[in-house]
From TrEMBL:
It comes from Streptomyces gulbargensis. Residues 200-210, 489-498 have a biased composition (Low complexity). This is Helix-turn-helix domain-containing protein. Residues 21-69 form the HTH cro/C1-type domain. It comes from the Bacteria. Gene3D superfamilies: lambda repressor-like DNA-binding domains (1.10.260.40), P-loop containing nucleotide triphosphate hydrolases (3.40.50.300). Pfam families: HTH_3. Residues 191-210, 461-498 are annotated as: Disordered.
Length: 498
């Protein structure tokens, strides 16, 4: 699924002027400033051309840019043709696409700069065209997608953003999205009428997938014609936030990517799609200092928790004692953003030392956000759903890990607890990592893992009655774990490599 736009390829003659200039510039490794120096054109003019804002450049400007890019006769002709198309009204489409921006986040990005930089570069360059960000509910998948989309939009990509019905949003939609209806139609087209599952297919969590990639799409399942006309060969990003991979139709996506060579697709989901070419991006909670390490206000989880504390208790000053309490709570809750936000909300009814005591004795009680009951329900249902979707062998392993002595474990411990071979244990650990049930660490100089405290707390105290979308979790298994019917309890499918 790694298909980029080649400035010298067959699509050059029909590419937009800005796409051509940017493609040639990136191909030879020039920044906008370096191209400006070589061509004697201002950086602003080059930026406007690449973004499609300058629709009627002078012939001399194009000649200077072509000289700076060292283009041959064929590539120069393509630039001139793109300018002529713009003069005949082609620029109106690009002005329309320029307004296609991602939603505005309501909170700053904390501790995810490295992940956002990697995702943005992979998608911008075309090295990856299909990326799925997975992680436990509330870990920050949407916030990372917002930052990635914003970076691509700044680079000139129109962003088509679709939030799945029922997904929890933490952003403000654009005031005027000219392609909102087309984005909605595209998302509906990719879902298809019903998931088409081959017998025996399974995701990393043992559930079926709608990715019937062995069956070609029927001829009448064409992408929305209006979307194809609007995007053409322009670079663009489609974000499906809160996607349900089991409902997505891979043949339709394949056709869409073939028809739109500049399109990239970014999914946020609880589980992988498990289709060819999928780049799986595992999102762990924020880093938090260990209790035996000095408390650091700049640790991502501590910064996040301090920010939420300021919203409810601005009188709490992060002195040495309070900072130690904040760092301890951040580590105890594994740096999980939604759990930290819920814990901070309790400071309206208690002080920081009391909050620390509750986290130590009964953390499950703090996972309901006092100011927003939906957040607590969202977290509980998300964790229950993740546990229910695990294969039976992985659920049993989680139960044993929750009752084993100590928080950290390694592969040797998994082999000892299960009696299985090392490859089987490695696959089980990977399944738990993909589900976000455990997080990795190297605090002891070796690769270790630990079950998230959120998972431990909610697994030990399941809610009465079935959670949303997990009706089969009514009974309990090992260590209070939800039980569900597993079509192949012993199989743990290995998804596409991250």
């Amino acid at each position: 699924m790694t298909t980029g736009l080649s400035p010298e390829g067959t699509t050059t003659a029909t590419a937009a002027l800005g796409t051509l200039i940017r493609g040639h510039r990136l191909r030879i490794g020039l920044t906008q400033r370096e191209l400006a120096d070589l061509s004697t054109i201002s950086v602003r003019a080059i930026r406007d051309l690449e973004k499609g804002k300058a629709l009627r450049p002078r012939a001399e400007t194009i000649r200077l840019i072509a000289d700076g890019l060292r283009l041959g006769p064929r590539a120069r002709t393509a630039l001139e043709e793109a300018v002529r198309r713009g003069h005949h009204g082609g620029g109106s489409r690009h002005l329309l696409l320029e307004r296609c921006a991602p939603p505005a986040p309501l909170h700053p990005l904390i501790g995810r700069q490295a992940e956002a930089a990697v995702l943005a570069e992979e998608l911008r360059s075309g090295a990856e065209r299909l990326v799925t960000v997975v992680g436990l509910s509330g870990v920050g998948k949407t916030r990372l997608a917002l930052e990635t989309a914003a970076r691509l939009h700044d680079a000139g990509f129109p962003v088509l953003w679709h939030t799945a019905p029922g997904a929890v949003t933490d952003s403000l939609p654009p005031d005027d999205d000219p392609l909102l209806a087309l984005t909605t139609a595209c998302a509906a087209h990719l879902q298809g009428p019903e998931p088409r599952t081959h017998p025996g297919t399974a995701t990393a969590h043992g559930t079926g997938t709608g990715a019937s990639y062995g069956t070609p799409a029927p001829a009448d399942e064409q992408p929305p014609a209006a979307l194809l006309a609007a995007l053409g060969d322009r670079d663009a990003l489609l974000v499906l936030d809160g996607a349900a991979p089991a409902r997505l139709d891979f043949p339709r996506l394949t056709r869409l990517l073939r028809e739109l060579p500049g399109l990239r697709v970014l999914l946020t989901a609880d589980t992988p799609w498990n289709v060819p070419g999928e780049r799986l991006f595992l999102l762990a909670p924020l880093d938090a200092p260990r209790p035996d390490a000095p408390a650091r206000a700049d640790a991502p989880a501590v910064r996040f928790l301090l920010g939420r504390i300021r919203q409810v208790r601005p009188d709490i000053v992060p002195d040495e004692r309070s900072l130690a309490d904040v760092a301890w709570v951040a580590h105890r809750l594994d740096g999980h953003p939604l759990a930290l936000a819920a814990a901070a909300s309790w400071l309206t009814v208690c002080d920081l030392p009391t909050l620390r005591g509750i986290v130590e004795t009964d953390p499950a009680a703090l996972l309901d956000h006092l100011a927003d009951g939906r957040s607590g329900s969202h977290l509980r249902d998300g964790v229950a759903r993740t546990l229910a979707q695990l294969p039976a062998s992985s659920r049993e392993l989680v139960g044993r890990l929750c009752t084993a002595a100590g928080d950290d474990f390694d592969l040797d411990e998994v082999v000892r607890l299960t009696g299985r071979s090392l490859p089987d244990c490695g696959r089980m650990v990977r399944t738990l990592l993909i589900g976000g049930v455990i997080r990795p660490g190297t605090d002891h100089g070796r690769s270790t893992f630990r079950v998230l405290r959120v998972v431990r707390a909610l697994a030990a105290r399941p809610e009465p009655g079935p959670p949303a979308n997990a009706a089969s979790c009514a009974s309990s298994g090992p260590a209070g774990m939800p039980e569900t019917r597993d079509s192949d309890a012993s199989a743990v499918a290995a998804p596409a490599a991250a």
